[in-house]
Amino acid sequence: MPKTLEGQITMEKTPSYFVTREAPARISAMSKDTKLIVVVRDPVTRAISDYTQTLSKRPDIPSFESLTFRNRSAGLIDTSWSAIQIGLYAKHLEPWLRHFPLGQMLFVSGERLVSDPAGELRRVQDFLGLKRIITDKHFYFNQTKGFPCLKKAEGSGKPHCLGKTKGRAHPTIAREVLRQLRDFYRPFNRKFYQMTGRDFGWD
């Protein structure tokens, strides 16, 4: 980490921290005052997105459905598959709460980052104690990508949109598979809502 001068905030972004068992204790040992921002989205959509990303690199992998179930006829979900396992947010949050108070954590809705980016970033700015600079006027919605783009300051070039790896078309998944996954995640989602004090509306 670079030295942080007075009036500066040093930020480090690694998505796998949230699901890495050793991370909470290590970060706490480094600084108990660390503020943590966790971006989450509907775990079913997240699993499909994860699969889509892998599929783009390895087109020969088995179907989403075959990876999802340990036993399809019995409806047993394979929680050892990382695409499924990562979405068990309540389970991943427990070790963090042993090292950090909930007040040092902000849970950002991935869905609302798309539908209301300025609103979610207002929460981030408030959480970090920053002046509210980013507002609605800093975004426009890119219909092709299906995501908002960030407008840069006047005269400083083109807006910044998410890269090629974002906004890929997801494969079609059978309705029954989606229903089974929603049923599977529902109790974990509800526990996560209780733990964070925020209903993300995934049910």
Automatic annotation (TrEMBL):
Keyword Methyltransferase: no
Disulfide bond as UniProt keyword: yes
Enzyme class: transferase
Top-level division of the source organism's lineage: Eukaryota
The enzyme's E.C. designation: 2.8.2.-
Pfam families in the record: Sulfotransfer_1
GO CC annotation terms, alphabetical: Golgi apparatus
GO molecular function: [heparan sulfate]-glucosamine 3-sulfotransferase activity
Keywords assigned: Disulfide bond, Glycoprotein, Golgi apparatus, Transferase
Residues binding 3'-phosphoadenylyl sulfate: 41, 49, 166-170
Name of this protein: Sulfotransferase
Naturally occurring in which organism (per UniProt): Mus spicilegus (Mound-building mouse)
Lineage: Eukaryota, Metazoa, Chordata, Craniata, Vertebrata
